[in-house]
């Protein structure tokens, strides 16, 4: 237990009215926080004084938290599983693509309510590096909105309006790196010793070469290697992603303290969820791939303890694109909670494999390998996002029964690039080898064949494939998130090829502007946009009425389905049947079941049409 002197540093800056509540939170979380930070930094002679200063700064941010957010904290602390409801639905977009500005996004709130959205993830909107900035992921300031998108007042107006509409705003929080024009990087280039200590800077190449021997590469085509020579910094800077994104040195406690405070300042502006970007890369260790290190989890657990003390209404979401077996660590352990939400990228990728192979073996393996969750935690399920589909998270499941997983996943990658007569119209990502399991890019409509469809039958099959994948995300048992434009069957944006700064990055295929014409067609069932919108919103409405589809409701994989069919039980009285093949399949039901989507009564041996989705509820015996 940390000494009362340390916790008193936090309490001392609070008004009397907040101290009893804060004391309760400190009693629950401060021992864990102290233990974790001592494990990381306790050998430093100044650790206790540093920890005391951290607690004082947390108290200042606690005191500054607006009354409306403190009320939300109290409400959610009393119901910590609030986000597991079947009523929860997410939506993800870039600000400039969806609303133009933060004020423009505020005008879109009625549309989000129409969709049933309760959680809005806006991709990076903080002030980013001048020039190329990785779509906003090279942050120059964590305290200012990107001027082209608005200002801090616009952000606070948006979070207030969203909160009034029952929608939580999720912001990216880029933990691993900052832009090379961030104030810390500028000071480091000017020779400031404290600023240089915020980064990994090496005066000569020998140590980077030793690290490089065991490191992977994120962008091997456009940004090979993990270190960049920066003449102004007098050496080699660790840059896992792009040369203009400098990795932070979390072995320095000053980095953790500064980043924790930056997150809380955003929380005090009304951000309710943080997508913690690149969490797997936070801690560096020679002789390893410097991913998923134990200390990275200690850092995230410490950040969670801080949130539990200062802003327990806030959720943390781990962007850890890692194999299924490595996911549970990001949700914590019996000793310490970590993130509330973790992306289930394996489930997403396996759904696409199911379509490519017309076989659910990999998908079933992923579901079977998905571990139970701790209380008040969930997976995040999705069909597409702003990033590529990374197939390598499926190596374990794709390599079952002595199958060559690399070749298998490479075939899938080629399929979604449109090879070998495929209906897909995607693009390979970060690989010049056509036989490699490169990532795949493209909007869902392009990857499922709608963009290439020339006949009514082809359009029908493409629509079914899109709904099938969304049905999986909505019924698996997670917080499902729609990607902007998928609800309107928007297609690839090829215009990125005319922008030199983006032309080498095919991820811009799936970063289109919101199509207002398609939006106007959303209630016209004669259009692709209207057909998709109406069918998808019908799924959302059906999900909202069935507690069996809540994130924490029981889930089991049924093993009596044919190879092309996924059969999931959600509790005793709900079944989700999904045909991933282009052929009709048969499945036998015991008893009488009501199809929640069509209202039909089904029983005995039923026929599943190609790419059919059925949500079935059993009647009372």
Mean pLDDT: 95
Helical proportion?
Answer: 25-40%
- Physical arrangement of strands within the biggest beta sheet: 1-2-3-9-10-11-12-15
Class by helix and strand content?
alpha/beta
Beta-strand share of residues: 15-25%
Protein name: Amylosucrase
InterPro entries: Amylosucrase, GH, GH13_cat_dom, Glyco_hydro_b, O16G_dom_2
Pfam families: Alpha-amylase (PF00128)
Provide structural commentary:
The chain has 621 residues and is an alpha/beta fold. It is built from 21 helices and 21 strands. The protein has an eight-stranded parallel β-barrel. The mean pLDDT is 95. This is Amylosucrase. Residues 87-543 form the Glycosyl hydrolase family 13 catalytic domain. It comes from Pseudoduganella danionis.
């Amino acid at each position: 237990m940390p000494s009362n002197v340390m916790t008193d540093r936090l309490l001392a800056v609070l008004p009397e009215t907040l101290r009893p509540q804060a004391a309760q939170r400190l009693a629950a979380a401060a021992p864990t926080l102290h233990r974790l930070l001592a494990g990381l930094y306790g050998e430093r002679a100044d650790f206790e004084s540093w920890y005391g200063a951290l607690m004082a700064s947390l108290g200042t941010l606690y005191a500054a938290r607006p009354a409306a957010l403190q009320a939300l904290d109290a409400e959610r602390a009393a119901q910590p599983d609030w986000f597991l409801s079947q009523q929860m639905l997410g939506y993800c977009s870039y600000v400039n693509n969806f609303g133009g500005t933060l004020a423009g996004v505020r005008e879109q709130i009625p549309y989000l309510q129409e969709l049933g959205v309760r959680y809005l993830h806006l991709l990076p909107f903080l002030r980013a590096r001048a020039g190329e900035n990785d779509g906003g992921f090279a942050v120059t300031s964590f305290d200012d909105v990107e001027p082209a998108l608005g200002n801090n007042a616009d952000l606070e107006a948006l979070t207030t309006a969203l909160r009034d509409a029952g929608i939580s705003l999720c912001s990216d929080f880029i933990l691993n790196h900052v832009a090379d024009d961030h104030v810390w990087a500028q000071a480091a280039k000017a020779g400031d010793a404290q600023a240089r200590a915020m980064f990994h800077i090496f005066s000569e190449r020998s140590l980077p070469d030793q690290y490089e021997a065991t490191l992977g590469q994120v962008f091997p085509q456009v940004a090979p290697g993990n270190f960049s020579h920066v003449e102004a910094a007098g050496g080699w800077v660790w840059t896992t992603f792009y040369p203009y994104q400098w990795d932070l040195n979390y072995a320095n406690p000053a980095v953790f303290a500064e980043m924790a405070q930056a997150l809380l300042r955003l929380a005090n502006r009304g951000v309710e969820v943080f997508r913690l970007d690149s969490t797997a890369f936070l801690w560096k260790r020679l002789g390893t791939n410097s991913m998923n290190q134990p200390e990275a989890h200690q850092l995230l657990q410490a950040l969670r303890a801080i949130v539990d003390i200062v802003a327990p209404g806030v959720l943390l979401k781990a962007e850890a694109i890692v194999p299924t077996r490595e996911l549970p660590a990001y949700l914590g352990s019996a000793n310490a909670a970590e993130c509330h939400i973790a992306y289930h990228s394996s489930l997403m990728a396996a759904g696409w494999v199911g379509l490519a192979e017309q076989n659910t073996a990999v998908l079933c393996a992923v579901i079977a390998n998905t571990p139970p969750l701790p209380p008040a935690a969930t997976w995040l399920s999705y069909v597409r996002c702003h990033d590529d589909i990374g197939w390598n998270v499926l190596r374990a499941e794709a390599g079952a029964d002595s199958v060559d997983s690399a070749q298998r996943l490479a075939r899938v990658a080629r399929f979604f690039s449109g090879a070998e007569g495929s209906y897909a119209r995607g693009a390979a990502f970060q690989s010049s080898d056509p036989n490699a399991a490169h990532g795949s890019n493209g909007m869902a409509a392009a990857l499922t064949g709608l963009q290439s469809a020339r006949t009514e039958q082809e359009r029908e099959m493409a629509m079914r494939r899109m709904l099938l994948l969304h049905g999986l995300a909505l019924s698996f048992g997670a917080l499902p998130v729609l990607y902007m434009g998928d609800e309107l069957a928007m297609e690839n944006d090829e215009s990125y090829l005319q922008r030199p700064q983006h032309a080498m990055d095919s991820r811009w295929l799936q970063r289109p502007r919101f199509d207002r014409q398609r939006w106007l067609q959303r209630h016209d069932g004669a259009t692709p946009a209207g057909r998709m919108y109406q069918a998808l919103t019908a799924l959302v409405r059906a999900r909202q009425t069935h507690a069996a589809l809540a994130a924490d409701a029981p889930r089991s994989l049924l093993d009596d389905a044919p190879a092309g069919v996924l059969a999931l039980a959600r509790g005793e009285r709900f079944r989700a049947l999904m045909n991933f093949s282009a052929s009709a399949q048969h499945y036998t039901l015991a008893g009488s079941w009501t199809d929640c989507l069509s209202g039909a009564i089904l029983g005995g041996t039923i026929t599943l049409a190609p790419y059919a989705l059925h949500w079935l509820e059993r009647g009372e015996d």
